[in-house]
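Sorry to interrupt, but I need a hand with the structure work. Could you write out one complete protein record for me, on any chain you like? Just paste the record in under my message, thanks.

. . .
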Amino acid sequence: MDTTERYRDLFHGMYTWISDLCDAEKGSAIDEIHRYWADDGRIVTFGRVKAAGIEALRKHFEVFPELYEKVEVREPFYTYLETGDRVVIEHDILIRTRDLDHAVIAGEAGREEFRVTSIFSVLDGRITEMREVAAVKAGDD
């Protein structure tokens, strides 16, 4: 296997897992958190720690079924780069909220599309850190 692609399956699986969290039929998907995230994993968004440690990550992701009807990361990614245990991924993500009261940015019927760039650190095949920035997608490329 090409070493510049050794984590691609991990991230495809992780983004599929996130999407599955919104599906009531797959409600137990949260229990797979350890497959993708290290015990001391953390999410940093716009320079602020959003969740640190597996329990905080669990709480972060547990609200997805309540808040979101759909979370879909679009593949293929715009950018996918690996260097050692660092991975940079740029992609579009479609989020459809369950109701507009939960929408952070009110969009058409609770629908938002973002361009996201994330920098991941991976250790022993699990994510230890995700640093991300996102912007509302203004139009087609």
